[in-house]
Amino acid sequence: MSTLDFLQPDPTTLFEQVAQAGIQGMGGGGFSTARKLRLAWQAKATRVIANAVECEPGINVDAALLAEHSPEVVQGLNIVMTAIGATQGVLAFAADFPKSTIKMLCQQFENQADREPDADSFAANQPSLSCTPITRTAGAGAERHLCQQLFGLSLEPTQYPIDRGVLCLNVGTLFAIQQAIVLGKPLRQRLVTVNGDTNWVSLGTPFADLLTLEEQPGAKTTRRYREGGHYTGKLSPPKAVVTAATNAVWLVEPATQTPCTYCSRCSDACPEALAPQTLHRLCTQPQVGAPSTQASPQSLSESALEANGLSRCTECGLCNNLCPSNIDLLGSFQQAKAQAREQALADARAHRAKQRHERHVSRTQARAQIALQRRESRRESRRLKQRGPDAWR
């Protein structure tokens, strides 16, 4: 890969370079970074959040990255701000980071604000750069929570930060952007916490090469791999590999699920004041309570889920961690959201197909009307010719 002029980057060229580097969201979402940057540029976003708020216990990927490569992260933040035309950049990090890391970050931002633009720093073009500590709580690193805490912006359940002029990127993503634009390096490795130890791991590395399921040769075990944190992580198949979105891999013993006891621990702890047990029941039993009418049980379930606030769920995973019955509440919410997105896409495709059909029918009818008028005109001309010259007077 070739390098780009990052002092005055062309947005379209930069987005293509990011796409060629294979950079995806490295905070766990895995969304295409090039597409996210393009959307922010088209929406004329004015603020950029460098997200280093690790709210999952045991994961210290962002802290390790900032301790080693904070100048590169800040440079990646500047590159993104310059490309999309943003005027304010904020690095949000967990308040319980090591004191040495916090001190280094503060010094880094102070230096960036005072230095003249050159090959290593061009912060003078972006005067508003700051770093803010965030108290580590469940869901503190969610985009909507950061927008509220940093800028006082309240997002509707159907809104994204870009709709309010804010672009949120993980610090690992910003580091990968800096490596791709300045050094021309594609995304080939990332920091991963493996059973508590954080190291650089190449993408595509099987989990089996990081951890072994069998403690002794030939011995069988029920332990499984978990990708992600203790709250939001999910069990992975034995042949899973490290991807750009993999921030942690654990070896866990799957717990046995028992029926819900309605203890309300999940409801009491939910930061969005939802009722996870009710949402789970609606997600797993869509036909419960459906009347014996022509209404679709699926549509009834979707409306009930929306009424109970499924779209407001930030997927923090706190309900899973507190459930004494070991019910995978988060998994059912994620599946229901995925099905809703697929249904929305199918409805949009059907609507576009209906519009195309209606336009086709309209064109066909217009052509038939024109052809009928022409036939009538020719028939009238022949009739007048047969009646002789006097018929034209």
**CATH fold-type name of the largest domain:** Rossmann fold
Order of helices and strands: HHEHEHEHEHEEHEEEHHHHH
Mean pLDDT: 82
Strand order of the largest sheet: 6-5-9-7-8
Rg (CA only) = 28 Å
- Total domains: 4
Outline of this structure?
This protein has 393 residues and is of the alpha/beta class. The protein has four domains: 11-187, 3-Layer(aba) Sandwich (Rossmann fold); 194-252, no CATH class; 265-342, no CATH class; 349-389. 44% of the residues lie in helices and 12% in strands.
Features:
single chain, 393 residues, alpha/beta, Rossmann fold, 5-stranded mixed sheet, 4-stranded parallel sheet, 9 strands, 44% helix, globular
Can you describe this structure?
The protein has 393 residues and is an alpha/beta fold. It folds into four domains: 11-187, Rossmann fold; 194-252, no CATH class; 265-342, no CATH class; 349-389. 44% of the residues lie in helices and 12% in strands. The protein has twelve helices and nine strands. It has a five-stranded mixed sheet, covered by helices on one side. Strands 3-2-1-4 form a four-stranded parallel sheet, sandwiched between helices. Strand 5 (189-194) and strand 6 (197-202) form a beta hairpin. Helix 3 packs parallel to helix 4 (99-114) and helix 3 (61-84) packs across helix 6. The radius of gyration is 28 Å and the shape is globular. Residues 113-127 and 287-297 have low confidence and may be disordered.
